[in-house]
Amino acid sequence: MNETSLGPLAWVNGSDAPEKSAINLGFMALSDCASVVVAATQGFAQPYGLTLNLKRQASWANLRDKLVSGELDAAHSLYGLIYAVHLGIGGVAPTDMAVLMGLNQNGQSLNLSHGLQQAGVNSPEALDRHVHQSRAKLTFAQTFPTGTHAMWLYYWLASQGIHPLQDVNSVVVPPPQMVAHLQAGRIDGFCVGEPWAASAVQRGLGFTLATSQSIWPDHPEKVLGCTRAFVEQYPNTARALVMAILEASRFIEQSPENRRSTAQLLSAAEYLDTPATCIEPRFMGDYADGLGNRWQDPHALRFHGDGEVNLPYLSDGMWFMTQFRRWGLLREDPNYLAVARQVQHLDLYREAASAIGVATSYADLRSSQLLDGKVWDGSDPAGYARSFKLHALNDATPLLAQR
Questions:
Q1: Rounded to an integer, what is the distance from CA 279 to the centroid of its chain?
Q2: Cα–Cα dist 307/387, whole Å
Q3: Cβ contacts of residue 399 below 8 Å, gap of 6+?
Q4: Are 62 and 125 found together in one domain?
Q5: Which helix or strand (DSSP H or E) is residue 98 part of?
Q6: Does residue 321 belong to any structural domain of this protein?
Q7: How far, in Å, CA of 153 to CA of 186, rounded?
Q8: Angle (nearest 5°) at CA 102 between 32 and 17
Q9: Same-domain check for residues 279 and 350
Q10: What DSSP state is assigned to residue 285?
Q11: Any residues with CB less than 8 A from the CB of 157 and at least 6 apart, and which?
Q12: Is residue 361 one of the residues assigned to a domain?
C-alpha cells in the first residue's frame, strides 16, 4: 500500500536501529484495530526494520495479562486498561505501564435490545422511565471494568439520571460475543466498539441509542500500550513501532478508497471475521440506528487527523483516572498529572512523529465539552471527579467485583 522512502531506510541503518526486530502485537477484533493491522500487513513496518506478529486476543483480560507477562510486546489497548494496571486496580499487581500513542478517536456505540425497542424504550427519556418504574433491573454489558466502554456507558447513564452501579446491572462481555449475548436475551443492552453494534442493528437484534462521540466528540479511545520496561529496554524499537503505526494511520485517512480497502482487509477471518458490509458503513461515518434514522456522523471513527488523534494527551489519561475516582475504583485522589506524565510517553511520540513529518505542535492538555455540559481540560481533576451528581466515591466494591 505504501512506497518505501529513503527516510526509514536511513533511519534503520543509523544508530537508531531497533534493538528488537520481531514484535508480538496484540489486538482485539474491533474496527479500531485498523492502524495496527495495516501497519503489520501492508508494508509499513519493514522499512523500520520491524516485523509485526499480530496476535488476536479473546478478551481484554487476556490481552492485559499477556502484556504484563511480556508474551505481548505491545497492543491495541483500552486507555483505562493501561491505567488500571499501572495503578494496581482490579486485582492485579501494579506494573509500570506506557501509552505510546493514541490509535483512534470516536466510533463506539450504546445499543439496546429489540425487546426494549418493542416495549417502546427507544429514547433516553423512555429508558429513564423504564429503569425507575420497572421492578426488574436491566442488565448492560461493557467490555472491561476499567475500559472505555464501561466509562462511556456509566457516563451516559448518569447523565440521564440513571445510576450505573445501583439502578442497573453491569456485566463484562468480550466485544465479539456481545451480539450473541443480546440475541440470547442475557443482556438488555451493551456498549462496545464497532462493528458489533452495527452488526446487531443489521441483524434486527436492537438499535443504537447513543454513540460515544455524542458523549464526547473526538474522545480518546484505543491506544498503543506496553509496559514501561519494554520502552526502557527497547527505546528504538518502541519509537520505530510508533513511526510505522503513524504511517499506517495517515494512510488510512488519505482517501475514501483507502478507508474502504482497510474495512475490506479487516473483514478477513484472522482479524474481525465478519462481513465487510457490517464494518464499512460506520467505518466511513455512515450511521443507521435501527430506528429509521440515518446520518453522516461528523465525529466518526478517525485514526490520524494530521496527528491530532495520535498525540497521547496528558488530559486524556487524567480523565480516565477521574472516572475511576468517581465510581469508587480509586479510594483516594492520585496525583493525576504526575501519573499521566509517567504513563504518557510524549517525548518518544514527538520524536517519532517529527521524524516522519507529522505535526507535533498540539498542546499536552486539550479542552472538551461533554454531553452534560461539563468542560474537561485537566486543570482541576480532583474537583472534576467530585463535581458529578451521581457517583460512588466512597465505595469501591461494585466495580471491583466485576473482575
A1: 17
A2: 32
A3: 145, 146, 150, 165, 327, 328, 329, 392
A4: no
A5: strand 97-102
A6: yes
A7: 17
A8: 110
A9: yes
A10: T
A11: 140, 163, 164, 167, 168
A12: yes
pTM to 2 decimals?
Answer: 0.94
Residues 134 and 188 reside in one and the same domain? yes
CATH number at residue 147: 3.40.190.10
* Number of domains observed in the structure of the chain: 2
d(CA 158, CA 387): 13
The helix/strand/coil state of 258 is: helix
Alpha-helical (H) ranges within 88-203 are 114-118, 124-133, 148-159, 178-183, 196-202
Q: Per the domain annotation, does 338 fall within a domain? A: yes
Judged by DSSP in three states, 78 sits in strand
Judge if 73 and 145 occupy the same domain: no
Same domain, yes or no: 322 and 249? yes
**pLDDT tens-place string over residues 273-327:** 999 999 999 999 999 999 999 999 999 999 999 999 999 999 999 999 999 999 9
- 62 and 29 housed in the same domain: yes
CA 363 and chain centroid, separation:
21
CA distance 164 to 19: 46
In whole angstroms, give the CA distance from residue 126 to residue 120. 7
Give me the domain span that covers residue 21.
6-105+219-286+299-383
> Hey, how many other C-beta atoms are within 10 angstroms of the C-beta on 111?
31
- Determine the Cα–Cα distance for residues 71 and 314; give it in Å rounded to an integer: 28
CA–CA separation, 221 and 192 (whole Å) = 11
CA atoms of 238 and 241, how far apart (whole Å): 5
pLDDT tens column, 87-104:
999 878 999 999 999 999
Q: DSSP label at 31?
A: G
Distance of alpha carbon 275 from alpha carbon 211, whole angstroms:
21
Joined together, the cell numbers standing for residue 89 give 486496580
Beta-strand relationship, 97-102 and 222-227: antiparallel
- Which residue in the block uniquely carries the three cell numbers 520502552? 231
Contact 312, 344 (CB under 8 A): yes
Residue 15: pLDDT band with limits 50, 70, 90: confident
241 phi and psi angles, rounded to 5 deg? -65, -45
Distance CA 210, CA 112 (A): 9
State residue 324 phi and psi, 5-degree precision. Answer: -60, -40
Measured from the Cβ of residue 41, the count of other Cβ atoms closer than 10 Å reads 17
Residues 228 and 370 in one domain: yes
Task: Note whether 83 and 15 are same-domain residues.
Answer: yes
Instruction: Examine residue 403 and state whether it is found in any structural domain, yes or no.
Output: no
Task: Quote the cell numbers at residue 229.
Answer: 520496561
